[in-house]
């Protein structure tokens, strides 16, 4: 649709649809339609060559076409052509984005895979190390880091550097466990495909480069476009929580992938699915009792900290304990031209031990703020933040679990709120302050000149 709309513009040129065109090609590639993806990529690349020449350095977008064609050619079984396009993507990204950019790192991983398959393990190691350096310190790229560690470990094994390989294997498995907590297979049973699945969608950069406010809509559209990826998308992409009403208790509850079974969602209040289904997965009696207590506790927490909103807690059984998620949501619309919403998703595992329990908590906050006024225009501040923590805490009985989980969630939310307020909002305020001024520019310049004159006169004394 965006391509059609852009073609209607008075100043339309072919190269101006480059970005939506490469994203559309990525969708066809993910859906297995390599021929259509190749056609769109070649068409888009030709338009950029026509406009900017063969040595286009106008932006990184040409590099995306090269990288996309490398993926498509590999899918079509033409490894030689895929390698040539990878080299072009590498050179273009390095000149337009730099070696430390995540796009350059993605290409470095692909080149590392190519050199590893061709037996050039030292070169493969160098490229994968380069990629890991680019991903370092950026939690958004945890799936990419897991894959790069896994592939580099293979090269290290081939080079006889077994101690280093063990370190990379441990790092890759630790990251894999975070991203796929329900998969308990040892590393020996995992394959390249398992690590690729962690980023089969994210690597296309479709969602990370779109407005976070529209994530839910974009996920639904992509599920319609590629039904085979629906389950994976719904499991891996955090979207704002939706609200349903329990038909039995008439209470609202929050919906996410953790209380979903097909097209039905389990209510924490009645333990029944909406709409009703047969043989829906429910927790054991012991875990359900803890779930009920947790919902009661977080209902009070929600009222005290959020002064409204909705909360829902879901528990389920795992082999060595239990796991669950705590969901909190509050949306406000103080006027017809302003709105905001806060969604907290806290997913945890609790491993039972003697008088102690080991907790792993992954917390996500999705924040959407928007306003529209005649004086200032439209403002949209949206995004999400993910943080993780592990802790060993004493346990006397099942009630202790509820208390411990409450403490972990409370501490994590406090840290994330402070981080948002002091760092993210503070930085946004500084940027806006540099871009826009409340007073007229002439007044600001006059004040600045007066200030400078005073300093000069004081110095003269």
From TrEMBL:
One of its GO terms (molecular function) is actin filament binding. GO terms for cellular component: actin cortical patch; F-actin capping protein complex. SMART domains: TPR. Pfam families: F_actin_cap_B, TPR_10, TPR_12. Keywords: Actin capping, Actin-binding, Cytoplasm, Cytoskeleton, TPR repeat. TPR repeats lie at residues 105-138. It comes from the Eukaryota. SUPFAM superfamilies: Subunits of heterodimeric actin filament capping protein Capz, TPR-like. It is found in: Cytoplasm, Cytoskeleton, Actin patch. Coiled coil: none annotated. GO terms for biological process: actin cytoskeleton organization; barbed-end actin filament capping; cell morphogenesis. The keyword Membrane does not apply. Belongs to the F-actin-capping protein beta subunit family. Component of the F-actin capping complex, composed of a heterodimer of an alpha and a beta subunit. F-actin-capping proteins bind in a Ca(2+)-independent manner to the fast growing ends of actin filaments (barbed end) thereby blocking the exchange of subunits at these ends. Unlike other capping proteins (such as gelsolin and severin), these proteins do not sever actin filaments. This is F-actin-capping protein subunit beta. It comes from Venturia nashicola.
């Amino acid at each position: 649709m965006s391509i059609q709309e852009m073609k209607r513009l008075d100043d339309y040129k072919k190269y101006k649809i480059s970005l939506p065109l490469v994203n559309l090609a990525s969708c066809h590639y993910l859906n297995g339609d390599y021929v259509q993806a190749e056609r769109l990529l070649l068409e888009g690349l030709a338009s950029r060559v026509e406009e900017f020449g063969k040595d286009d350095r106008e932006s990184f977008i040409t590099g995306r076409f090269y990288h996309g064609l490398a993926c498509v050619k590999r899918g079509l079984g033409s490894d030689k052509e895929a390698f040539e396009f990878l080299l072009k993507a590498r050179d273009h990204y390095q000149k337009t984005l730099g070696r430390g950019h995540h796009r350059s790192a993605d290409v470095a991983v692909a080149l590392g895979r190519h050199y590893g398959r061709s037996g050039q393990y030292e070169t493969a190691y160098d490229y994968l190390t380069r990629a890991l350096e680019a991903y370092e310190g950026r939690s958004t790229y945890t799936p990419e880091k897991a894959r790069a560690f896994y592939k580099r470990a293979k090269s290290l094994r081939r080079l006889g550097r077994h101690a280093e390989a063990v370190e990379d294997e441990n790092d890759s498995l630790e990251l894999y466990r975070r991203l796929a907590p329900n998969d308990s297979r040892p590393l020996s049973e995992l394959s390249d495909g398992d690590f690729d699945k962690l980023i089969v969608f994210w690597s296309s950069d479709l969602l990370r480069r779109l407005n976070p406010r529209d994530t839910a809509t974009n996920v639904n559209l992509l599920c319609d476009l590629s039904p085979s990826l629906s389950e994976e998308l719904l499991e891996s992409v955090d979207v704002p929580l939706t609200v349903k009403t329990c038909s039995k208790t008439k209470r609202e509850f929050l919906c996410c992938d953790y209380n979903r079974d097909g097209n039905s969602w389990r209510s924490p209040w009645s333990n029944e699915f909406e709409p009703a289904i047969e043989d829906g997965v429910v927790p054991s009696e012991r875990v359900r009792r803890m779930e009920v207590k947790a919902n009661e506790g977080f209902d009070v927490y929600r009222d005290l900290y959020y002064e409204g909103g909705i909360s829902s807690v879901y528990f389920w059984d795992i082999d060595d304990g239990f796991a669950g998620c705590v969901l909190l949501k509050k949306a406000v619309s103080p006027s017809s031209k302003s709105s905001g919403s806060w969604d907290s998703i806290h997913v945890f595992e609790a491993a039972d031990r003697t008088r102690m329990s080991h907790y792993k908590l992954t917390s996500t906050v999705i924040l959407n703020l928007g306003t529209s006024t005649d004086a200032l225009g439209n403002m949209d501040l949206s995004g999400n933040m993910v943080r993780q923590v592990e802790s060993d805490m004493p346990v006397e009985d099942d009630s202790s679990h509820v208390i411990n989980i409450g403490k972990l969630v409370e501490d994590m939310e406090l840290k994330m709120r402070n981080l948002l307020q002091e760092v993210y909002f503070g930085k946004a305020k500084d940027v806006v302050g540099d871009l826009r001024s409340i007073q007229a520019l002439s007044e600001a310049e006059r004040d600045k000149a007066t200030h400078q004159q005073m300093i000069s006169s004081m110095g003269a004394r």
